[in-house]
Structure formats: structure tokens, C-alpha cells
Amino acid sequence: MTQAATHRAIEAVWRIEAASIIAGVARLVHDVGLAEEIAQDALVTALSRWPDTGVPDNPGAWLMTTAKNRARDRLRLDKLHTRKHEQIGHELEALQADVEPDFVDALDAARQDDIGDDLLRLVFTACHPVLSTEARVALTLRLLGGLSTAEIARAFLASESTIAQRIVRAKRSLSSANVPFEVPRAEDRGPRLASVLEVIYLIFNEGYSATSGDDWMRPALCDEALRLGRVLAGLAPAESEVHGLVALMEIHASRLHARTDTQGRPVLLMEQDRGRWDLLLIRRGLAALDRAHAQGGTLGPYALQAELAACHARAHTPQDTDWPRIVALYDALAQVMPSPVVELNRAVAVGMAFGPQAGLDLADALATDPALANYHWLPSVRGDLLAKLGRRAEAQAEFERAAGMTRNVRERELLLARAKTVAGQ
């Protein structure tokens, strides 16, 4: 194998194994920042040795062993430095404390949460609410996605220095706040799990509909979010909302190839060639939705949104879409996740099910909501409904207003094109 091929193999292994290695080391050192440094040291060692010795049969295990050995060396060195500054009596006490009686191990085992995987601990730590949303996203992509600072910066159209500072500050914040490397206890898991799911879905959404820039989508981010969601579903199989989020992402991801034309221009849902939808991803999404239902209880926001996506996935043509059921699902979603954005989407569904005037009445009622003041989809939805009612001049103005509000180049082009079309130009 050439040196270049070896380096490519190392990069591939690192992308797959990085999260597990960092998680395994973090359990030993109880510091996510230090764990990442030690894991990176193991990677540097691989880069220097493998071109000469060849890639090991189990490269992930080699990296994990090397990283854990370095962690243990670091812990021994830290203990040695500490002991040099202690009295003999304190040193003896410390040595005795190193050998815990069996009942302590049993007590610790009894205190273990019902989910005790290192990787799950890393997920909950990287997505801790003590961090800002931007910091959680960057740290999650770095630690769990194995993305480099440059890749994260490219994905979110930020400078490398900005992302690097964000990651450094996030690790410092976790350390200074003494955030434990653990899965929250069952009674505390709900809010923390919500933060984890929020971060993963934010990553997916930025890939599915890029906030700004020249590209309509960034599929690599969708892939990373899907991978994280699948991992989380394997680690927390009893959590309905985890399966709901995976179902939602799988079904949405099934449309990626149909969401742009050959020139990279956006294609809206009702105009997509459904023959280009990925049937395997749809099947995976519906299976995940079944697992969400199997947990029992009331469906949460992600599972309800997955049900909405499933309505479209099951419709072979746009005309087959069950719009009354979609309206009912939005009614349920508004109960568990009240939001003006949910109400706006419900207005679209009502317009499809019961006529454009009914939808426009609901959209108009949202026009003064401050949460939607800069939300370009509000004038876009109004433009679509006005066009269906034959109010072309008003529709054109709304599409142009929406175009002026979006920061995505492709989206702006789409909205301006719709403005021209509705005006008969």
C-alpha cells in the first residue's frame, strides 16, 4: 500500500472510530478536552508508524489501545507529580485509596444508569445545555462526527478560527462547569435527551436546507446527522423520540437526489420525480417509525413529524397525498410543540386539503407574529396561496419579499423565478 493510500485508510478509520476512542479515553480521564488530545496523539502515532508497518488487521482496536495506554501513562504521571508534593502519610492514604474494596465496585455498579455506554456518555456531554447551541453543534461534529475544524467551518460557512475558538471554549466550559462524563439518571434524562436530539436535527436541517451560501443542500451534514442518530438509536433503544428522529431523517434523506435538478436548482416537494426517491431509506424510516410506536405512550414531536413525512413517502403521486390526515397530524404536533412555524406549515396543509383561501386565512393570522418577522417562508407561503387564488400581483410581491429575506443563493433564485412565473413574464 502506498503512503498516500495508507493515509486515506487512516483518515477513513479515524472518521469511523474517533468518537468511540475519545469516549473510551474520557471515561478514564474524566475530561473530554484531554481525551480528544490523547486520541489525537494516537492518531499521530498511527500516521508515523502505519506507512512502514502497514495498517493493522483491526485498526480501530489498535488506536483504542494506544490511546488508552497513553491515558494511563498520563494518569500515572499526574499521580507521581502529586505524590512528590505530599507527605508520606498522605501518600500511603492515597495508595490505599487506589485499591477499593469489592463492595465499592458493587455499589458503583448499582449506581450505574440503565444505559452505561461510553459513547452515549460522550453524546450527552458534547450536547450539554451548559453550552450554546452553536458550541454544541461544533463540538458534536468534532467529537462524534470526526470532522476536522476545516470541514465544520466549510459546512457552516464560518472561518476556521471561529470554529476552532468555539470548540476550545466549549471544552473549557465543560471543564469549568465540572460537567460529569456520564449519562444523566432516568429522571434527568428528558431535558438532556431533548438537547441531544435538537443538536442532531439542527445538523441534519442545515444539510437538508442550507441557511446561506451557494448550495441548496449540504448532503454530507445529512449523512453525519443520520449516522449520529442511528448510533444513538442503538444506544438508547427504549427512547421513542430517538426512533422518531431517525425515522424523520431517513424519510427526508430519501428525497435528497430529487430535491435538485441537473443544474443544482431546487425542486419543491410537489414537483419532485418520486421515482428518484430512495426506497431503501423510506423503508428504513418507516421501520424506525414502527419502533417509535412500539415504545407505547403519546408520540413526541419528532415521531409526529416523522408521521407527516411518512404521509408523503407513502403517496406514489402528489395527488395521492392524504392532506386531511396531515392537517390532523399538525393539530397534534401543535399540542405537543406549539410554534408559529408549526402553525404556518399547518396553514399550507389546510390550503391543500380545504382550499387556498382557508390556508391563506391562517397564514394571514400569523403575519404579525414577531417570531416570523424575518422568516422568509411566511411570504413564500402567502405567495403560493395568493397565486392559487389568482391574485397574481400580490403573489409576485410576496415571492419577491421572500427572496429578499433569504440568505441562500439557490433559494433566492427559486423565489425570484416563481415571482416572474406568477407575473406571466
UniProtKB/TrEMBL annotation:
It holds the Pfam family DUF6596. Signal peptide: none annotated. It comes from the Bacteria. Residues 192-293 form the DUF6596 domain. InterPro entries: DUF6596, RNA_pol_sigma-70_dom, RNA_pol_sigma70_r2, RNA_pol_sigma70_r4_t2, RNA_pol_sigma_r2, RNA_pol_sigma_r3/r4-like, WH-like_DNA-bd_sf. Residues 124-174 form the RNA polymerase sigma factor 70 region 4 type domain. Residues 25-76 form the RNA polymerase sigma-70 region domain. This is RNA polymerase sigma factor.
